[in-house]
Amino acid sequence: MEILNANGRQNRITNGATEFTMQEQIHEFLYNYEFNKETSQYPFYKVLPKIVLRELRIPEINRISDHVILLDNKRTVNIEDKLDSIECVIAQAKDHLQWCDYSVICVPPDRTYIPTKYIKQIIDLGIGMFYWFNNIGVFEFIVPRYNKLKDAELRKKIITRILNNAEGKNISKYIIDKQNLFEKVADEQI
């Protein structure tokens, strides 16, 4: 099936990809990506331990997160993917702000027209935005802002769910230190 854009040309970026293909490629990208933190000692960064899960149920808000990342056992990131419905993906990302530290949408630039009013809404909400290019990668377009308005108890429940879903699975190439996790979470200002 050939997909045509507004000019009647075939989309070269998505090239007929499905949302499932998009989700698979984004998950693989997140799994292999090294999230770094700057340090004062050589090599001047450290790779953060992470858990990357796909399609995690969040029944408290009646949603399923497309991708969830737990970074360094304390930062939660939600990523929502959509091929073509900007209103829908913004609504999903906004709902996930109830529990996560960072919420991001990911769309292909050739299939999703994004009016200025939605770019403003994304920025005002603190939601980040990635562009996905089929068989190429993911590129950050809008940096997400740290979410200070989340529900701390809901966040703690979801971190527990992330850890339980991760147990026994080969989901990350980093060893996750679960000991004292909630002491770390309690110590940080949420």
Describe this structure in words.
The strands form 2 sheets. This protein has a 6-stranded mixed β-sheet with strand order 3-4-5-6-7-8, sandwiched between helices. It has a two-stranded antiparallel ribbon with strand order 1-2. It is built from 5 helices and 8 strands. The protein has one domain (19-171). It is α/β, with parallel strands linked by helices. The radius of gyration is 17 Å and the shape is globular. 30% of the residues lie in helices and 26% in strands. 27% of the residues are buried.
Strand order in the sheet with the most strands: 3-4-5-6-7-8
* Whole-number tally of structural domains: 1
Radius of gyration: 17 Å
* Separate helix tally: 5
Total number of strands: 8
Q: What portion of residues is helical? A: 25-40%
Unreliable spans: 1-8, 171-190
**Which sheet architecture does the biggest sheet show?**
6 strands, mixed
Strand content: 25-35%
